[in-house]
Amino acid sequence: MIYLDHAATTPMAEQVAASMQPYYAKDYANASTIYEFGERSRHAVEHARRVIAYSLHAHADEIYFTAGGSESDNWALKGTAEAYKERGRHIITTQIEHHAVIHTCSYLEEQGYAVTYLPVDARGFVSPQQLEEAIRPDTILISVMFANNEIGTIEPIAQIGRIARRHRVLFHTDAVQAYAQVPINVDYYNIDLLSASGHKFYGPKGTGFLYIRDGVKTASFIHGGGQERGKRAGTENVPGIVGIGTAAQVAMQAMPERMYREIRMRDWMIREIQSRIPGAWLNGDRSTRLPNNVNFSFTQVEGETLLLLLDAKDICASAASACSTGSAEPSHVLTAIGRDKELASGTLRMTLGESTTWEEVRMAVDAVEENVRLLRDVARMQ
Questions:
Q1: In three state form, how does the secondary structure of 312-341 look?
Q2: What angle do CA 56, 117, 128 make, to 5 degrees?
Q3: According to the model, what pLDDT value does residue 326 have?
Q4: What totals of helices (H) and strands (E) does the chain contain, helices first?
Q5: Is residue 105 annotated as a catalytic residue, yes or no?
């Protein structure tokens, strides 16, 4: 099997699974207890918190563990909206955010908040100038994803962060696809809140974290006990937290080499597809994109049929984000960058990973070329 859908999920690293194992049956004590047995669990949780904080150039008490990226996004937006509603009720985001942000913003609109959804250009970039012009006296939050999960474009986060700080508006970024793929320094980028998900960087599913800068107010997301400094109640998922901490440590150590290798593979795939397949439209920016993301729309091709043909050759890829699979509507991201419905329906996303080999990417490009030709031949005969 050739697995080219790492943006959907990644396999858990062996080191991660090994680090989690003791906390299922041996060191199983509740991390919130005060006896020595429980302290072992608590120390493991706090070690993971420090590791993740270090990876972002943050402080340990600014990291809050969650059950995944969608929860982190929900908490960042709802919690901030609630905490700052007396200051204002206006939020700025973009038209290409993950549904965890888009749908949360829609919910907040129902609660009386105003949301500005900024457009993006043909490569998926939001305009910092348009963003600054959209700021109002009652703007309390800007939420722009670090990198898009479908087309891979990396947004001008440094500029956005500077604008937000200058206008004293909080800045949240959904970094689910970017964290552990590219270096992130929350101070350099002036990020106030950041969301991430463990299973995107070889950690366990059902784990994530939200970075909240010291001094930023957020309402408690889950009411109950005092876990996560009273912000998210519930017994700590110690094995999962240990796993996401180990995954972060392993990913950060491997990042420079992995980025170099994936960028070379990515760029080779893009060049080959563009030169060998007429009517292949690259989605996202050519270079300012995630190291592992290759996304094309093909004329006269139905994307889901192409996926099935690739699957028959044991090649796993996707048409859009995994969260949109099965939707009859074209991707909101592709629509936002100007792809019409027909071209958007012929989209293929291939995302590379730690184990991807050169032989696999060559085989994948050959298979894409062969099956795009086949589908076009069939279309001409009809």
A1: HCCEECECCCHHHCCCCCCCHHHHHCCCCH
A2: 60
A3: 54
A4: 13, 12
A5: no
C-alpha 198, offset from chain centre: 10
pLDDT in tens, 24-61: 999 999 899 889 888 999 999 999 999 999 999 999 99
Amino acid at 107: Y
Tell the residue number behind the tokens 């980025």, with chain if given.
Answer: 259
User: Using an 8 Å Cβ cutoff, are 98 and 147 in contact?
Assistant: no
Rounded CA gap, 34 and 324, in Å?
A: 44
Q: Is the pTM of this model over 0.85?
A: yes
Residue 139 phi, psi dihedral angles, 5° rounding:
-75, 125
Three-state secondary structure of 108-170: HHHCCCEEEEECECCCCCECHHHHHHHCCCCEEEEECCCECCCCCEECCHHHHHHHHHHCCCE
Residue 304 CB-half CA count within 13 A = 11
DSSP 197-242: EGGGGTS-TT-EEEEE-TT-----SB-SS-TGGGTB-S---HHHHH
Q: At 328, is the pLDDT very low, low, confident or very high (cuts 50, 70, 90)?
A: low
Amino acid at 97: E
Residue range 370-378: average pLDDT? 95
Report residue 93: phi and psi, to 5°: -145, -165
Q: What angle do CA 171, 255, 143 make, to 5 degrees?
A: 15
3-state SS, residue 355: coil
Catalytic residue among 308, 323, 378, 379: 323
Amino acid at 218: T
Tokens (6 digits) for 377? 């031949």
Phi, psi of 2 (to 5 degrees): -110, 110
322 pLDDT more than 50: no
